[in-house]
Description:
The protein is α/β, with parallel strands linked by helices. The chain has ten helices and six strands, in the order E-H-H-H-H-H-E-H-E-H-H-E-H-E-E-H.
Amino acid sequence: MIDKFSTILLDMNQTFMFGADRFGTTEDYSVIYRQLGGTMEPSRVNQLVCAAYDYLDIRYPDPQYRESFPSLRKAFVSVAELDPLSQDLELLVETFARHELGTVPPKYAASIHQLSKHFRLGLVIDIWAPKTLWVETLERCGVLPVCESASFSSDSGMVKPSPLPFLSVLEEMQVDPQDAVMVGDSVRRDLGGASAAGIDCILVGGAKHSSALGAVNSLVELVESIASDS
């Protein structure tokens, strides 16, 4: 199924990073905000983080924002009328990022290392906060060093299922779309974006679709199947 490709593009959340996007009515965002040194009232912090999340969440599936998705800073400025240069804005962005960030289980990091022995790897990642914490996390677990290129939507303003993030990674790697396969958990974002870019897609995490090249339970299972076939 996969040995005809030279390159694998990987989604991140629910593909090899888990426990991300800890947003909801039960979260107290002021805890992290206070740890960072903020002095705003807890209720105000929680209200602003929820408002910024809602601002982005309603735009995320909207086709008109696929190549011009607003930044998290713009979201906070829009919902709170904060000074774009204020310290409170930076602390709110950092607070949001820490709730958005997940973790990479060691077995998934090991699977990506195993993949890198047989395929060229790239990352196509949708996140709303600036990428700093993700770069640190992916460096620390050894994922980023084995990937030749990575697209973070918070850098480019391009979110899946736009084909542009996929194509920009392949262009940097100098790989043709027909030589690459996308691995991700979302039919709309990963399969939809890959298909629009002329790239095959394998779904993980329980997602299935007739247009996908295949579907497996997890990235770990996919890597194990490759090892057993070789």
